[in-house]
Design a protein that fits this description.
This protein has 125 residues and is α/β, with parallel strands linked by helices. It has 5 helices and 6 strands, in the order E-H-E-H-H-E-H-E-H-E-E. The radius of gyration is 13 Å and the shape is globular.
Length: 125
């Protein structure tokens, strides 16, 4: 496992809890909306992520609109697109992407799909 420093993650409510558990087993610090505050609205999820200084893990494309169009505060977002693979395989892809790009994820918008991984950094404000 590559060192992830002090980077924390917040899994959105729609994010598979089995994957959350596998990420934790790999030593990642992962909070979970499903465990902490189920049914909160997306802007509140971003507020919690900012409060915890955590990168949001989500499968919900709506967060792109919240941070790009509405310019809501965030600490980074990793959007995981649908992939037809087992939770174990999917979690390995997520872990590998995090390990390889850990320094680029804070304050960025990353998209992980079956085919690739893209990161767009936000300018420092």
């Amino acid at each position: 496992m590559a060192e992830t420093g002090h980077v924390s993650f917040l899994a959105d409510e729609n994010f598979d809890l089995n994957i959350v558990k596998l990420l934790r087993q790999e030593g990642l610090s992962v909070y979970s909306i499903a465990e902490m505050a189920p049914s909160v609205a997306d802007p509140e999820v971003l507020d919690i992520a900012v409060e915890k200084k955590a990168i949001l893990l989500t499968e919900d494309k709506d967060f792109g609109e919240l941070v790009y169009r509405l310019r809501l505060a965030h600490c980074g977002i990793m959007l995981v697109r649908p992939m037809k693979m087992s939770p174990e395989e999917k979690s390995r892809r997520i872990i590998r992407s995090i390990q390889e790009h850990i320094d680029q994820l804070p304050n960025a918008f990353a998209v992980l799909s079956r085919e690739n991984f893209r990161i767009k950094s936000f300018p420092k404000s």
